[in-house]
Amino acid sequence: MRKPVTDIEQIGNRITSTTLTGTAPNAKTKAPLRASDHHMVWITRGGGRANIEGTQQGFGSNTAMFIPAQTLFILDLSPGTTGWHISVPSNLRIPLPQTPFLTNIQKPIQQSMLSKGFGAIQEEFISKKPMRGTALIYATGTLAVQFQRLDISGNRKELDKDTAKRRLMRKFIARLDKRYFTNDTVKDYAAELGVTTTHLTRVCRQTAGKPATRLIQEKALEEAKFLLKETDQKIGSIAHDLGFGTPAYFTRVFSERVGYSPKAYRNLERPKP
What we know:
CATH class of the largest domain: Mainly Beta
Number of domains: 2
Structural class: alpha+beta
Number of helices: 10
Distance between the termini: 31 Å
Order of helices and strands: HEEEEEEEEEHHHHHHHHH
Shape: globular
CATH superfamily of the largest domain: Regulatory protein AraC
Helix content: 40-55%
């Protein structure tokens, strides 16, 4: 089966920028779907709670947050909360912190610099201009330097200490990132990690709130969404490369989980001529 493309422009196009809006209690980001990516978050107003590998952490306005790859997290945003969320492919070589952190930014000049950095990436992300992927890499690299400086500033909240459960979850996510396009089952992943299927499923539920089977499927569907949006690869070929038995089964699962058929999603997300 064909492995994901690693061309520089394709890697850049995997950077995603999302505006965050807390419109109702328990409004959640889709961060767990991209656990193989690094995440930079900037909360400009409001607040909420972050669930990072099963641990709750509150945050308020002017909070910068970094979540490294292979770390599952969900943001619960309070009503009226606004901000940005950027996901960065783990194979993109830019300077980023090594561990998760949250920090409150009090200096207005730093707040302004972060808002400008996130805003520049968002503008490039929605522009669809030529060399968009390359431009996203440079803009994201500049923002990454700001986060690296925040990481070494000492003004950060340390999260809970590492545990065996968290280490197992990171190993599972790392393997999933390399094997999602195969037909590997939860049993295969558990055997490779040296644990029982029951234990792996239990840890996934405790950490991510969903079973391992769902995480495997969601990873494949996330890749399918990228291929439908950014390439001209045929739908049947995408289904085959991502390990779905038939194009019909792929279409059924995609439609149930995404809310659109693969063809409708491509038509909706691809830029119009």
